[in-house]
Amino acid sequence: MRRVCLEMVHQLARSQRQVIFIGSDLGSGTLQAMQKELPEQFFMEGIAEQNLIGVAAGMAMEGYIPYVNTIATFITRRCLEQIAVDLCLPNLPVRLIANGGGLVYAPLGPTHTTQEDIALLRALPNMTIVAPADAPEMTRLMEQTVDWPGPIYIRLAKGGDPLVSRQEDGFRIGQAICLRQGTDVLLLSYGVMVQRSLQTAALLAEQGISCAVYNCHTLKPLDSSLLSVMAAARLVVTAEEHSLIGGLGSAVLEMLMDAGLLKAVLRLGLPDQFPHRYGSQEQQLAGLGLDAEGMSQRIQQRLAGLP
Amino acid sequence: MSDAVNEPLDERSRYLRRLVFRAMQGGGRGHPGSALSLIEIVRVLYDDILQVRPAGFDWPQRDRCILSKGHGCLALYAILADKKFFPLEELDRFCRLDAMLGGHPELGMVPGVEASTGALGHGLSIAAGMALAAQRKGEKHRVMVILGDGELDEGSVWEAAMFAAKHRLDHLTAIVDYNKLQSYGPVEQVQGLEPLLDKWRAFGFAVEEVDGHNPAALRALFARLPLTAGKPTAILCHTVKGKGVPMAENNPNWHHKSSFKAEELAHLQSALGS
């Protein structure tokens, strides 16, 4: 997904001279083809993330469309003030490409994983937050990023993830995509959790439970047309590779409460604690019950407790 | 270092200071000390150096000037009002609920303001981005950024300095209002900066120092920019916090004020005229 995303920056930069790429100190060879072909639009500016954001703001004020890339947690934790004041306040078209959202960097430990990036940025006015489910969806998203008026945070998954998105569904920033119809349960997710949600729905179907799955790739603005879909379900479930504080689950509860809609909601996500564990993303998600088996059990338990 | 800092201020410098206090009385608050050390810097920039147009202020070929030490905004507002970027009467509504002019400058709210500042350590990066954009587009306008000395505590300033030197941004000038006093007390006690000239030089800048209250010296130095082809410039302006109001000079209690006593008002009038 990351490779596809960066190749799309190269492709966009070819047709639009105002598109530029700004990396920190990325892996050797990153976007080498772009560096060779479009050296005037390629920047690798060192381990100075706060400066990268400020420079991107200055260039955006002068008509450029900067795509800034580094590790998710280094963008969000370290540069929150630059993002708020330099990008969101003047509403500049800077795109933040965040490597390793969630537990992708599980083996590297809690300095590198991020469980609160969406919570932090969701609270900033003017920010748009997108987390595609797979590489083809990333391509469809990137095509739309050039003309989007304000800042965008693009959360990348691990790469090599199973394909779940479909060409025929198209892609619009801010519009959730129905991947599976269902009547009992409505399962909402994004990123790599979409694939797990589809597997969960298949397991539930074996138990005679009808489960719809929506890909909520845009966390902000959250698609308001989900309200009518949620109203029709017995149980709304959110599944995310993010803290239970401030992510999709929180956004869904806010939307429901603000609309005066009282629904049974089950939120699945990362607990409010640092992991203190390593292993792989897969292992950590499974350990937290965020695999198809664990999710379908939690959903069945919750359904059994409903009136 | 050029001429001494204790030359008497001329009428234009005293007039601009009166505008600072007009706004402070309008808003009932402000950072007077931080604005008064800046007056001659912004006066010379806007009177003699910067190519700007009050009407149609976003003219693409204009010189850019960012006040990175946003808390010095009363000096910027005074000169922008004097130059008719907006009516002088806006000063009287400073910091009010529906005012144009807030306690820190905001892009899009105030004609002539190039970036929203107030959170320190942002301006040099933004200015460097603007300067790089101009370099890539082959545009000739200058980018000036005014930094506080206390602001230089921020690590992001030095990230931006390395970036500017790497890209040889010689139409970028960092002007340091070196008044030696930050909010809590003397810079050398809170977080010493010396040897400051050597620091900027080591970071790849062409460096000069000047009496920041001497308009002629400032004018002569700014007219020589860029000091060295292929290098960004840093100018250390030796200034006095609260300059022009003896009671406020070098007095940390005048960093921010929200009210004036009767004797302070009388003192202002005697120092600055009316």
Textual characterization of the structure:
The complex is a heterodimer of chains A (307) and B (274). Chain A is 38% helix and 20% strand. Chain A has 307 residues and is α/β, with parallel strands linked by helices. Chain A has 2 domains: 2-155, Thiamin diphosphate (ThDP)-binding fold, Pyr/PP domains (Rossmann fold); 168-304, Rossmann fold. The N and C termini of chain A lie far apart (42 Å). The mean pLDDT of chain A is 96. By secondary structure, chain B is an alpha/beta fold. Chain B has a 5-stranded parallel beta sheet, with helices on both faces. In chain B, helix 6 (155-166) links the parallel strand 2 and strand 3 (172-178). The longest helix of chain B has 17 residues, at 11-27. Chain B is globular. Chain A binds chain B through residues 40, 45-46, 48, 50-51, 53-64, 81-82, 85-86, 89-90, and chain B through 106-108, 114-116, 118-119, 121-122, 124-134, 136-137, 155-156, 159-160, 162-163, 166.
Short characterization:
In chain A, 38% of the residues lie in helices and 20% in strands.
CATH architecture of the largest domain in chain A: 3-Layer(aba) Sandwich
Question: Might you state the CATH topology name of the largest domain in chain A?
Answer: Rossmann fold
Q: What characterizes the major β-sheet of chain A? A: 7 strands, mixed
Low-pLDDT runs of chain B: 1-5
SS class of chain A: alpha/beta
Record field, number of beta strands of chain A: 12
Order of helices and strands of chain A: HEHEHEHHEHEHEEEHEEHEHEHH
CATH superfamily of chain B: Thiamin diphosphate (ThDP)-binding fold, Pyr/PP domains
| Strand fraction of chain B | 5-15%
Query: Roughly how many Å is the radius of gyration of chain B?
Result: 17 Å
The dominant shape of chain A is globular
Structural class of chain B: alpha/beta
Q: In CATH terms, what is the architecture of chain B?
A: 3-Layer(aba) Sandwich
| Percent in helix of chain A | 25-40%
